[in-house]
Every structure is written in C-alpha cells, then in structure tokens.
Design a protein that fits this description.
- The structure holds two protein chains of two kinds.
- Chain A is of the alpha/beta class.
- In chain A, a hairpin with a 2-residue loop joins strand 12 and strand 13.
- The mean pLDDT of chain A is 95.
- Chain A has three domains: 198 residues, FAD/NAD(P)-binding domain (3-Layer(bba) Sandwich), CATH 3.50.50; 102 residues, no CATH class; 122 residues.
- In chain A, the strands form five sheets. In chain A, strands 1, 2, 11, 12, 13, 14 and 20 form a seven-stranded mixed β-sheet that branches. In chain A, strands 7-6-16-17-18-15-19 form a seven-stranded mixed β-sheet.
- Chain B has eight helices and 19 strands.
- By secondary structure, chain B is an alpha+beta fold.
- In chain B, a hairpin with a 7-residue loop joins strand 15 and strand 16.
- The longest helix of chain B is centred in the middle third of the chain and has 12 residues.
- Chain B folds into three domains: 150 residues, Probable tRNA modification gtpase trme, domain 1 (Gyrase A, domain 2), CATH 3.30.1360.120; 82 residues, Aminomethyltransferase beta-barrel domains (Alpha-Beta Plaits); 82 residues, Elongation Factor Tu (Ef-tu), domain 3, CATH 2.40.30.
- In chain B, helix 2 crosses helix 7.
- At the A-B interface, helix 2 and strand 5 of A face helix 2 of B.
- The complex binds flavin-adenine dinucleotide.
- The site of flavin-adenine dinucleotide (FAD) has 41 residues of chain A, from helix 1, strand 15 and helix 15.
Chain lengths: 539, 398
C-alpha cells in the first residue's frame, strides 16, 4: 500500500492543478475521480463517433497564462486557438456583429448607433480598469479581514493600495458597480437596445440572476477579466476541446509522479480526532493520507461526503445554505454541415464565429421569469459557438458541432422531477429557437446531447448544475468564498482543504483555485512553494 | 482613348496568385518583397499564425528567387559555392544551404532542389544572379537561369496540410518524407511538391508553371475549405519561423555583400549553423576562413532564449548581470509565443559569456509612457516549437 501525502477528491481541472503543484513539490499524491473520465466540467467526450463535444465548458479565457506556462501545458498537448467575432441575433432581423478588428468593430457599432460606437471606448476603458483590479487578486489568497496575523494585514494593505490607485471618484464608482445590475450599469453608456443586450449578456451566464438583478454587473466582469495572450476579455478554444486542458494538466501530474485513479468515487472523508485522515471509496476501499483536498463544491463536500458529526457546529448549515442554484442547460449538437443564419453576410470569418441569440434585455428578463416559476425559458437566451469551424480535430471534415449554452433552465421544475421526456422537450425548445434564425437547421442534426442541471449534477457532481460551484454573488466572493472565515482554502476540519471553484476566485476554467490551494497547503506542510506568481501585462 | 500610367515604372509587380490574394486581403495590408506586392497579412496576423499551427495556410513565395542550374558541372559548381556537400543530396531531395564570401561571411541562405543529376533549383530570399555568375566562372558546362517569374510557388503549412493535399487528389503525398520532392500530373502539366517550409510545422511547397497558378490555387482552396485553409502573410511567417528558431535576413544576419561595416555580417558558426559547413568535401568558397573560425570559436553565438515575463525583448541588449553593466549581446528577434506560452527570443551573444547569467533590458510603452525592466533569460537548446507531426511520415490528418 502506498503511503500518500495527499488525496485529492475529484479530477476536475482544479483538482488536477492542485495535484500537479503538490506533486511538483515532491509530495506523493493521488487523485480519485468518480467518473471513468477526468476533467469534470472541462472535458471532451466522443458520444457520437467522429464528433468530440466539449460537454460542459466550451470556451477558454480565464486559464491563467502563468500556470499554462509554468506547467508547460504546451508540451502536454495544450494549445488555445482564437475564434473570430460573434454575431448577436436580435429579436427581429437585427444583427450585431462583433468583429475582432477594431476598425471593423467600430463601423459596425456605428451602423446601429453613432452614439454607442463612441461610448464603447469609454465602456471598455472603465471595464478594463475594474477588471485590472480583480485580475490582481486572482492568484492571491484573500486576506482574512478579522485576523491580526501579519500576513493578512499585509494582504489587506496590498489591496488598499490597489484600490487607492483608482482615485477617489473611481473608488465610489467601483463600489457602485459591484452592487448594480448589468442592465442598469449599461444604461449609463448605451442607447441601442441590441447593443445593451449584447453587452449585458455575460452578466447572466451561469447565474440565477436576471439582467435587472443587482449583482449581475459583477458577473459581467467575471467574464471579461480573463485574457488570451494579453488580449484582456478575449476568449479562445482549446484545440481538441476543453478536455485538452484537463488532459494536459493530467500530463503534468504524471510527469511529477502523481497518480490519478478514475472510477473511484469517494463515499466519505474519514475524520479522526477532528482531523481528516483519508477517504473511503464507494467500493469500500480506504485510502489514508496526511491531508485531504476536495475538488467538489462546498455544498457537496460538507453535506454529501462528510458526516455532520465530524464537522464543527454551524458548518453543515452554512454548507446547506450555500447559494448554488442551477440556471443553465447545455445542448451539444452534431451537424452534418455548416448551418447558415439569416441576416448575416457570408463573411468566412465572422459568419463562422460565435452566435449569441440575445434578443433584447426584455427577452432575457422574460426568460428569467420562466426560471423563477420553475420552468425552462419559453424563449431562451442561447450562447453558441461552432468549435469545429475553428478546430479541425473535433468533427469529421466538412461536418460540425454546435455548442449551445442555454438560459434559463432550473434544477427543479415546478411540475415535478426532471424526466427524459422533459429533458427532450427542453432540447426541442433550443432547436426551435435556433431554427428561427437558421431555417433547415433541424435537417443537419446528426446527434444531440441535452443536459439540464439535473444531468450536469448527476454526471459531474456540480450541485444543482450550478456551473460555478456556487453563485458569484458578493456574499460568496473573495474572503467570503465559500463561507466567511474559510476563504483561505483551509477547511474547518484539520488537514482538510478545498481546491475547487467553490473557493476564491470562483468558477470558470482557470486552474487558479487549485493552484492557490496548493500554495496554502505547501505552506502548512512547510514545503517550498511551487506555485508561480501571476503574469500580468503591466496593468 | 488609351491612358498610360505615368507611375508604371515604380509600381510593384503582381505575383501569379495576385488575382486571388487581393480578394482575400481584406485589410489591404500590403508590403513588398523583391519588387513584388506582398501581403503583410490578409485578415488578422495572429489568426493567420494560428492557422499555421491549427489548420493550414498558404504563403505566396513567388517573390522568392529561383534559379535553375543545369549542366554536367552544375553539381560541382554548387559544391564550390555552398558550404554543404551537394553530392550528398539525393535525387528529388531538398537541402538547406548557406553560402559565404572568401572571408567566411554569410551571403545568404536558401534551398537546393536536386531535380536530376545535372539539374538543380536554388531558391533564396534575395536576388543573387551576380554571385551565381561569378561562381560559374571556371566551370565549363553550367547554365544559370533565373526562373523566378516562370514558376509560381505557394507554401502550404500547418497540421491539416497533408489532409488538404490528399483531398486535392495528390495520391501518395502522405509518403513524402521531410525534404522529399514528389510530382503529380496537373492539367496536362506537372505539379511539383516538396515537403519543405519555413514554419517548423508540417508543411509543403507547391511549384507550378506560372500559367497554371490560379487553377492550382482554386483546386487547393476548394480542397482546403473543410480544413480551415487561409492565406498568411509576412507577419504570421515571422512569428512561426521564430518559434521554429529559423533565421531571417536583416534580422539575424546581415547579408555579407551588403555589409558596410567590418564584421557586421555573420559567419555560419555565429548563426549556430556550423552543421551546414562540411570541411570533408573539396574546396568551397570561404573554406579556410571558416576552418580558422571553427578552431578559434565564433565571437558571437546565436542563442535561443526564454525570457521571464511577457514583454517581448525586441531590440534589447543582453547583459551579464541584472545591474546591466556589462553588455554581452543583443536580441535579433523576439515575441510572445502564443503556442508555447513563452516569451521567446533569438539573440547574438558573445560566445565567452554564454555560460554565465543572461539578462535582457526590455523597454516598453504604456499609454505613452516609457517603462523598462530587466528580465532573466534562460538558454534553450531546442527549437521553441517542434511538433512530432512535422517529422512523421505519414503525417496525421490534423
Ligand atoms: C454547462 C457548463 C458550461 C460552462 N462553460 C464554461 C466556459 O465556457 N468557460 C469557462 O471558463 N467555464 C465554464 N464553465 C464553468 C467551468 O467549467 C467550471 O467552473 C470548472 O470546470 C469547474 O472546475 P473544478 O475543477 O473546480 O470542478 P469540477 O469540474 O466540478 O470538478 C469536480 C470533479 O469532482 C468529481 N467528483 C464529484 N463527486 C465526486 C466524488 N464523490 N468522488 C470523486 N470525485 C467526485 C467530478 O466528477 C468532477 O470531475 C461551465 C460549466 C458548465 C457546467
């Protein structure tokens, strides 16, 4: 029997990142994953021969370059490729094309509103300023504001300095920004409804908020704080699908001598004398180690694989009340050819780009209303991309697949539990919407994978299908993530840590949670830190 | 009424592919190469670079100089001119070569195609008619013909390039090994394809009679449609070649025949191209100077660097300490590599200092203000980008 230093529960990309950095420091680590495949929500699966879906996450921007570089993920087969532009489909015939090229983008905005074309500069400038600040905090452990340890005080001072650099006026703006809704925030800048809707849409992705809900402006920021090769806010595709990211990190784990076991679901974290000492697998096997790290979301970790009696008072309830409402579905469609969309020029670049079925602010809000009433949206907001238009490895030549991220879709329906029939009806609502903009779309369909929050939870264990492992509202961010007092990756039971998206800085394929947790663990174990500092663009 | 263009004499020439290239040059981003109008990029330089690494892309190499060298003495003449042993080039094979002055300073680099025992094609970046004619002196049976304007050449590079050529109907193309030349019938003529390129990736170069250029382009683009084909220009080429650590004239080396200042040109040894110099073969231009250089060791050595941070070290000096007191070299090319995710550079460094610490002083601008930073450099021995598919035969489909 091996003597492990660390057990990481879950081979999501954060669990793998955590394992890679611990193994790099010389620790003997094992990752135990319940599924037969690794990656969690950063995964590629071939459900129809020849087509490779990114089943959950589908685009990449938050992945920290510093980690990509440090773990030499290129060597392990990872390459991120850009895709060019997006088309926003309005409710009627209106189309807003977002071109990669600055001049082209400006002209297109001007076609809709000369005012908004100018205002876009101010909007982008303000957003960049806000995101610079957030970006600085990503690869740092949040300070505990109630602590008097020098480290926490230093970190608070660092933050104060960063905020101070904004200037007084901007500081107020910043605080205001955090509490606003995306729609309200955009009112300050734009007049054209499609432009407003298009800009607001990142504010609802993955959240149980609407465009008019306070807090959605932060979500907007969360989606533009990443970068691809220094182009902040840009998104790219992982060649071979999002699983290529997880596979490359797994390559690093193996390189450093770590072990990954699939088909090894954890039934329970073993706690003795208030210390985590190992895990019991679903097949009854017991594995022991000095420390246990959970890649699962906070709710799942504390309410499913831990015994309430092993936890200090109050933790179970905090976990039970952790806000992790599911709001999104994912429909992956294999196509026999490239769909054509109405009202779009046959531009070989932008016509292949991403498609956002935006509608208008009102359509989005109505879609949210359905969710509140426990139904999937009659007229959903859909963010799509056709990865095969850019990546030759994910569909047979000349054929394609379309990734559709759909809002809203509730975890629990008001008319009783999810059934395969209801799931298919939900899928149908998505096809219907797309077909409205792409006549004949249905005839191209070769295969479909419809995932409601129910499937997402069942397959990858994201509670309620929440894509971020817990909502990104201010009460659950930064030092409050997952719970106040536990923002530093150490959990209430000794020798136990969390490294998934339930921790700072939250969801998305970034590897940051896993890396940050590794840094804290190595500090506790008095090992040399292996986690690099973040790589900025001199912001 | 006929009008004559009063500026005709100074307008750039158009390559054989211009009619198609101009349609795709959406940004009107033109530069020039050897008198030809030549794309800097077509749509987006970075995107085109990624096509080279992710799908496939074409680069118009019509402006590259091409010479046909024919006759019984052709081989001997070339062997007298270049530093590599031309005798060792197999039939229907290509070899990368350099040629030097008597002082061992590099004139240019290029490729030699052995098309028959008495027929070769030499390609290079700059015209070298005069040097070739001088090199012919003393050989009886050699003729040199500039065929630059007769042959249309297109480079197809990237992971789906082999699949695209297969789709185009070039049966057996997957059997071509790196540096092989194959021939295919094309519209009653012959299409020559070499497995060569300047990107460090899987790739081919297509050579066809000028009159058939557009037909070939159309067939290639029809086949490549499902494989992400896209034209790329100078900007993307420069990125790809730097990742492959290939040298460029006027970047890594200053052509000897155009160098005014003493030793501001380079030797093959300085450019880390010593492997191209074959002292076992008969006399060649620059031999004795190069032998001396080899024994003494080059003053400078072209070095591959991985530099901390993400600011490209373009134009930086290299120092032996962080204090930047002792200058020991200079960066010739630098970029952030999107594929490797590293801040890469080629630099000429004084050979004596290679083993020590290397620091680059990097200047950059942020909203009109100048900043500088000193960054640690790490030497790399292998090219930054060298995927297995570039060497595999048969190559993968993507
Ligand atoms: C539909 C969808 C679309 C998304 N789109 C994007 C996007 O485009 N871009 C982006 O950046 N982010 C996106 N996200 C968010 C992003 O994918 C996630 O935030 C991120 O992948 C979470 O990674 P993680 O490692 O923290 O956790 P997870 O990926 O959730 O990993 C947890 C792992 O634990 C395993 N596990 C669960 N229970 C057990 C157990 N008992 N024993 C052992 N193992 C267990 C799971 O199988 C899983 O492998 C999306 C998410 C979803 C669901």
């Amino acid at each position: 029997m091996s003597n492990y230093d660390a057990i990481i529960i879950g081979a999501g990309h954060n669990g793998l990142t955590n394992a890679a950095y611990l193994a790099k420091a010389g620790l003997n680590v094992v990752v135990v994953e319940k599924n037969e495949y690794i990656g969690g929500a950063a995964v590629t699966r071939e459900l129809q021969e020849g087509w490779k879906y990114s089943n959950c996450s589908y685009v990449c921007s938050m992945m920290r370059q510093a980690i990509h570089r440090d773990l030499d993920l290129a060597k392990h087969g990872l390459i991120l490729v850009p895709y060019l532009g997006n088309i926003n489909f309005g409710d009627g015939d209106e189309r807003l094309l977002s071109y990669h090229n600055e001049e082209a983008a400006h002209l297109e905005l001007k076609r809709h509103s000369p005012h908004d074309a100018d205002a876009m500069h101010r909007f982008q400038t303000d957003l960049t300023r806000y995101s610079q600040l957030i970006r600085k905090t990503l690869m740092r452990t949040p300070p505990d504001p109630t602590s008097f340890r020098p480290r926490d005080i230093m970190e608070l001072l660092y933050l104060a300095k960063q905020f101070w650099k904004l200037g007084e006026k901007e500081l107020y703006e910043y605080v205001r920004f955090f509490t606003m809704s995306a729609a309200e925030y955009l009112e300050d800048y734009f007049e054209n409804d499609l432009i407003k809707a298009a800009m607001a849409s990142p504010g609802i992705i993955g959240t149980a908020l609407g465009v008019y809900s306070p807090g959605s402006s932060y979500i907007l920021l969360h989606h533009v704080m990443g970068d691809v090769d220094g182009s902040i806010g840009a998104w790219g595709l992982a060649r071979g699908g999002m699983g290529a990211i997880s596979n490359a990190i797994a390559g690093a784990v193996n390189e450093f001598g770590g072990e990954i076991r699939t088909n090894s679901g954890v039934q329970k974290i073993l706690v003795e004398n208030r210390k985590a000492v190992g895990v019991v697998l679903e097949n009854g096997d017991e594995i022991r180690a000095r420390i246990v790290v959970s890649n699962l979301d906070a709710k799942r970790t504390f309410t499913r694989i831990m015994d309430k009696n092993d936890l200090p008072d109050g933790i179970y309830d905090k976990a039970k009340n952790f806000k992790i409402r599911g709001s999104s579905g994912k429909v992956n469609i294999a196509l026999s050819g490239m769909p054509k969309f109405t009202g779009v020029p046959e531009n070989r670049y932008v016509a292949r780009g991403g498609q956002v079925f935006t509608g208008s602010l009102e359509t989005m809000e109505r879609a949210y209303d359905c969710w509140k009433h426990g139904r999937w949206s009659d007229d959903p907001f859909i963010e799509s991309v056709i990865p095969s238009a850019w990546d030759p490895t994910v569909a047979p030549p000349g054929q394609h697949w379309m990734s559709n991220f759909v809002q809203y879709c509730p975890a629990e329906l008001s008319d009783g539990p999810w059934t395969p029939e209801k799931r298919d009806q939900f899928g149908e609502s998505v096809i219907k919407k797309i077909e409205g903009y792409s006549p004949g779309f249905r005839d191209l369909i070769v295969h479909m994978e419809v995932r409601t929050p129910y499937e997402i939870e069942k397959e990858i264990g994201l509670t309620e299908g929440n894509i971020f492992q817990g909502e990104l509202t201010i009460d659950q961010l930064f030092f409050n993530r997952p719970f106040p007092g536990y923002g530093q990756y150490r959990m209430p039971v000794k020798n136990m840590y969390m490294c998934g998206s339930s921790t700072h800085p939250g969801g998305g394929v970034s590897s940051v949670c896993g890396a940050n947790a590794a840094r804290e663990i190595l500090m506790d174990l008095r090992r040399t830190n292996t986690v690099p500092e973040d790589d900025f663009y001199d912001e | 009424m006929t009008t004559t263009d009063p500026y005709a004499g100074e307008r750039l020439k158009r390559t054989a592919f211009y009619a198609r290239a101009k349609e795709l040059n959406i940004r009107d981003a033109w530069a020039a190469w050897n008198g030809y109008k030549f794309a800097e990029y077509y749509y987006d330089a970075e995107y085109e670079y990624f096509c080279v690494r992710n799908t496939c892309a074409t680069y118009d190499i019509c402006p590259m100089q091409k010479y046909e060298i024919k006759g019984r003495d052709a081989e001997a003449m070339l062997n007298r001119m270049v530093t590599r042993d031309v005798k060792k080039i197999g039939l229907n094979r290509v070899a990368y070569c350099v040629w030097c002055t008597d002082e061992g300073r590099m004139i240019d680099d290029g490729t030699i195609f052995k098309l028959a025992d008495d027929r070769f094609m030499l390609t290079c970046g700059s015209p070298c008619t005069a040097w070739l004619e001088m090199s012919v002196f003393g050989f009886d049976d050699v003729t040199v013909t500039d065929v630059t304007d007769d042959i249309a050449a297109l480079s197809l590079q990237g992971p789906t390039s082999c699949a695209t050529l297969k789709k185009m109907g070039l049966q057996g193309i997957d059997t071509a090994k790196p540096f092989d030349i194959l021939y295919f019938p094309f519209q009653g003529d012959t299409l020559m394809v070499s497995r060569t390129g300047f990107t460090g990736d899987l790739g081919y170069e297509l050579w066809i009679k000028k009159d058939l250029a557009i037909e070939m382009w159309d067939e290639l683009y029809a086949a490549g449609d499902d494989y992400g084909i896209q034209p790329f220009g100078e900007a993307a080429t420069n990125m790809a070649r730097l990742e492959a650590a290939f040298i460029m004239p006027a970047m890594e080396f200053n052509e000897a025949l155009r160098t005014v200042n003493f030793e501001h040109d380079q030797t093959p040894f300085e450019l880390s191209l010593g492997w191209l110099v074959d002292f076992k073969k008969p006399h060649f231009s620059g031999r004795s100077a190069l032998l001396k250089e080899k024994q003494r060791g080059p003053k400078y050595t072209l070095t591959k660097l991985d530099i901390e941070g993400n600011r490209p070290a373009a134009g930086s000096y290299i120092y032996s300490s962080k204090l930047c007191t002792k200058e020991i070299g200079y960066v010739t090319s630098a970029m952030w590599s999107p594929s490797v995710k590293a801040n890469i550079a080629l630099a000429m460094i004084k050979t004596d200092y290679l083993e020590g610490n290397l620091w680059a002083e990097i200047y950059y601008e942020k909203e009109l203000r100048q900043y500088s930073r000193v960054a640690r450099c790490t030497r790399k021995t292998k090219p930054f980008w060298a995927p297995a598919r570039a060497r595999a035969t048969p190559p993968p489909d993507h």
